[in-house]
Design brief:
With 562 residues, the chain is mainly beta. It is built from five helices and 48 strands. The chain is globular, with a radius of gyration of 28 Å.
């Protein structure tokens, strides 16, 4: 009974703490003026940005501080994604996350390396026991870097709630100087059913924006009828950086009444891929610019919406006049507005939205299968957000599955029958996706007897390719018989131009050494401070394996005072 009571008290306490977001509990994780290269909730490829990206003055190695007292409960090191990342759980139920790190504080670094060497792997995920790695608010826990999928030196910082949902760090008092209004690039009107139109057309209509003296905009007036929705392309910029970041809130009004709002305050990772339902996905794929749809279509369960009336859709009636407004805000409440005059007008003739029909209609509520030649294709129900005709063509070793202008929410499975290939040839085969200029990219290939398959959420063309070439190994600062007593690191560059690098293993005098790998540069680096070397003469050996099993070996002997 006492255990149950304690459990209830703890949960009530956490619930209470997280109902009222603390404004002064967390400190800045860096001790420089905060400038952001990415805001919370920013629209990214297939996901919302789950934290804020803090600029580090173009360099690595800045001190990273624990934002509050807590315990390190997770450490993950990987070649991709967050690179070197650390998770600190705090007594109030929140967790702070620090990613793309260069290295950790000495105590934490020693804890990690001991386990990396035991596993003989650079990539590792650790869950320290409770209290094993406790930290104090303001304690240096790491140093900023550029590891993983980072596009430049910065610190990715998150705050997650007790349900592991990322929240906007600025809600907790993490202050970013911002006196600038968001920038509106374009505004669009969408016809949303077969009876509606905008200016006599059912295709999305881009409106001309007229700047006003107060910095806001008035859009050109439109004639419309039926169910319509608004889309907007917008960015925000803060004072200390020129980066084009995401906005905090967008809302719409019709004749002075708010009928839609989205707010980047909190979301769950399980819903983040629905960003492809929020944006105009075909437009983004063709133009590399994101239009945010300010209305909610079916199969869109995002929780970022609030105060919606009729899902943000306007029902325009004949002969009636309307004034729609779009308000774009950043976290500091700087606001840009667009006013859109709409006149209800039924036209006798309208330009209908063209639907190109094919033999292959895929429905969100049904599984879809295709079989032809050497191919089997399976698209599970729930993969598409709405009905779509797909252009599917099988030709030799290549299958075209439409093109990447329709988003998939679930993985489709593509199977190739490779029974016509010899056993030796099969070993070097892999599935690749065809890209621009006939380039191809390796996709994960599962091999089972004569059936090679891949699972992917990207429509497009896929084919079989052969990789007969070994990876390349280029020594950077080591050569045969070289003295390296003054060197801090041993550096090797590796690459595989076809299927890509799968793994590598390095030893000195037969002992495993930990080499950090940066896939962006292809650089492998060993830190001599690991103190594996106990002899003057040292035999270095590196084996690199690509994704079809080709391997390359580099060996050399160098000298270093132990």
């Amino acid at each position: 009974m006492r255990i149950i009571t304690l459990f209830l008290v703890l949960n009530i306490g956490i619930g209470y703490c997280q109902k009222d977001i603390p404004k002064d509990y967390f400190i800045n994780p860096l001790d420089i003026p905060l400038a952001v290269s990415g805001t919370y909730g920013e629209l990214r490829s297939n996901h919302f940005h789950s934290g804020i990206d803090l600029k580090t003055e173009g360099q690595e190695g800045l001190k990273v501080y624990a934002a509050a007292d807590g315990t390190i409960t997770r450490i993950k090191i990987s070649h991709f994604g967050y690179g070197k990342a650390m998770y600190i759980s705090h007594p109030n139920g929140y967790t702070s996350v620090y990613a793309h790190l260069q290295k950790f504080s000495p105590e934490i670094e020693a804890y990690i390396k001991k386990r990396q060497y035991a596993k003989e792997s650079y990539e590792i995920e650790l869950f320290p026991k409770a209290g094993a790695l406790s930290v104090k608010k303001g304690e240096v826990v790491a140093y900023s870097g550029n590891t993983g999928g980072s596009g430049g030196p910065h610190l990715h910082f998150e705050i997650r709630d007790a349900k592991a949902r990322p929240m906007n760090p600025m809600s907790f008092g993490i202050d970013i100087k911002d006196t600038k209004k968001p920038t509106i690039n374009s505004v669009w009107i969408y016809s949303l059913d077969e009876n509606s139109h905008v200016n006599g057309d059912q295709q999305p209509t881009k409106l001309r924006l007229i700047p006003l003296d107060d910095g806001n905009f008035k859009a050109e007036g439109v004639n419309a009828i039926g169910k319509i929705g608004i889309g907007v392309s917008t960015i925000d910029q803060q004072n200390l950086a020129a980066n084009k970041n995401g906005v905090y809130k967008i809302s719409t009004e019709l004749n002075g009444q708010e009928n839609f709002a989205l707010e980047m305050k909190r979301f769950s990772f399980s819903e983040t891929r629905y960003i492809n339902r929020l944006i105009d996905y075909p437009y983004y794929k063709k133009n590399r610019s994101r239009i945010t749809k300010l209305f909610i279509e079916k199969n869109n369960p995002l929780t970022i919406y609030k105060n919606t009336i009729d899902k943000g859709i306007f029902n325009v009636e004949d002969s009636l006049s309307y004034t729609a407004k779009v308000l774009v805000k950043d976290f500091k409440d700087n606001t840009a507005e667009i006013s859109i005059p709409i006149q209800g007008k039924q036209l006798a003739e309208i330009s209908k939205k063209e639907i190109i029909k094919t033999p292959y209609l895929v429905k969100p509520t049904e599984n879809f299968t295709f079989n032809s030649g050497i191919f089997d294709l399976y698209i599970p129900k729930g993969s598409l957000y709405e009905h779509a005709y797909l252009d599917i063509q099988a030709n030799g070793d290549t299958i075209k599955i439409h093109q990447d202008e329709i988003p998939l929410h679930k993985n489709m499975t593509i199977v190739f029958d490779v029974s016509n290939y010899s056993e030796s040839d099969k070993k070097k085969l892999y599935i690749g996706r065809l890209g621009y200029n006939n380039q191809h990219y390796h996709v994960k290939t599962n091999k089972k007897n004569n059936r090679f398959s891949t699972r992917t959420r990207t429509l497009g063309s896929y084919s079989l390719f052969t990789d007969l070439n070994k990876p390349t190994i280029v020594p950077i600062n080591v050569s045969d018989k070289k003295w390296m007593s003054k060197a801090d690191f041993l550096k090797i560059k590796i690459d595989d131009a076809d299927s890509g690098v799968k793994s590598y293993r390095a030893t000195i005098n037969g002992k495993f050494i930990l080499m950090e790998y940066d896939y962006k540069t292809g650089m492998l680096v060993y830190d001599f401070n690991d103190k594996i070397i106990t002899e003057t003469e040292n035999k270095f050996k590196l084996i690199v394996l690509d994704k079809v099993g080709n391997n390359a070996t580099f060996e050399t002997t160098f000298f270093r005072k132990p």
